[in-house]
Amino acid sequence: MLLEFFTGKVLEAFLVKKNEPNWLMVLRTVMPLGLSYIPIGLACGVLLHAAGFNHLLTALISVLVFSGGAQFLIASMLTINAPMTTIILMMFFLELRYALLGSSLSRYLKGQRLPFIFFFAFSMNDENYAVNYLKFATDKHWKPSQAILVEHYSLLFWTVSNIIGSLIGSALTINLSVVDFALTALFIYMAIMQTKSRLTILVCALSGVLTIFFLVLMKSTLGLVVATLLASLTGYFIERHLLAHKPESHLLYKVHDPTGQTAMEEDTDK
User: Fold this and answer.
1) Total Cβ atoms within 10 A of residue 191
2) For labeling, which of 22, 88, 98, 193 is most exposed (least CB within 10 Å)?
3) pLDDT confidence of residue 181
4) CB of 161 within 8 A of CB of 35?
5) Mean pLDDT for all residues in the chain
6) 165-169-170-174 Cα dihedral, nearest 10 degrees
7) What's residue 132's pLDDT?
8) Is 249 or 262 the better-scoring residue by pLDDT?
9) Residue 254's beta-bridge partner residues?
């Protein structure tokens, strides 16, 4: 009974009610996302502090970058004394996806002024993009002013979590090797979550081989950038060729799917 009561109260807090202030309605909408930021934000703050960032720099990078993957990347690359050019290039290719995400929301932002577009793009990330895209697609009353408020709320949750994590990190002694593995673990998780077909696994394996080759050849972390570009382009052109000429190829089959359905067919079904 107690569990049911508590669950009911939590669900009631997240439900949007009629005739409530706009800021509160948007806050209820973004609250599940904000709460999900807390554990990863705390971990990111701890790792940034271990990599040498003080509390102020942690807050600044949280606001200016606002990307868990990029911030973990920065922490990891700095601990191995990677050149700044390499860090910037890696961040550029990692964050390049936002150009595509932003373009899919552009039709909902028509008529907005340039400063609004700038701040909207500045505070967009994967998660608040998903919230806004879903709201725009399903709620005809959802406004750009509400969408940017979603972004600002999520930015607030992320930044506060990072700062608290940095404060926790200042009270702990952390082996810097943990920072290196944290990024490795994060990207392994991201790779697994994005693995829809056998071709993806092949490209991941190719990327690993190319990374080792170019790191040894170039004796610089710039080899990571070269390997990432080559593997991504190779996978892209192979997929295009197979979809155009061999759509039944086993490389396009979904992972762990006994029916032999392709990943492209799955996306179409959805």
Assistant:
1) 14
2) 193
3) 66
4) no
5) 81
6) -170
7) 92
8) 249
9) 197
Instruction: For residue 252, give the nearest of 235, 269, 228 by alpha carbon.
Output: 235
- Dist CA 80 CA 73 (whole Å): 11
> What phi and psi, each to the nearest 5 degrees, are found at residue 256?
60, 35
| pLDDT tens-digit series, residues 82-137 | 888 888 888 888 788 788 788 889 999 998 999 999 999 999 998 899 899 989 98
| Tens-place pLDDT, residues 213-226 | 988 888 776 787 78
Q: What is the Cα Rg of the chain in Å? A: 21
Could you tell me the two tokens for 264? 């492209």
Helical residues (DSSP H) of the chain, grouped into ranges: 2-14, 22-50, 55-65, 68-79, 84-95, 97-105, 114-122, 126-138, 144-170, 176-194, 198-218, 222-245, 263-269
| ∠ Cα 176 183 256 (to 5°) | 145
Instruction: Band the pLDDT of 261: cuts 50, 70, 90.
Output: low
Nearest 5°: phi and psi at 253? Answer: -70, 145
Query: For 97, phi and psi rounded to 5 degrees?
Result: -60, -25
End-to-end CA distance of the chain: 38
Full DSSP string of 236-255: HHHHHHHHHH-TT-GGGBBT
Smallest CA-to-CA distance from 170 within 76, 50, 38, 43 is with 50
Q: Which residue has the tokens 């696994």?
A: 201
Spatial separation of the C-alpha atoms in residues 27 and 20, rounded to whole Å:
11
Measured CA to CA, the distance from residue 107 to residue 91 in angstroms comes to 27
Single-letter code of the amino acid located at 162: N
Average pLDDT over residues 51-62: 92
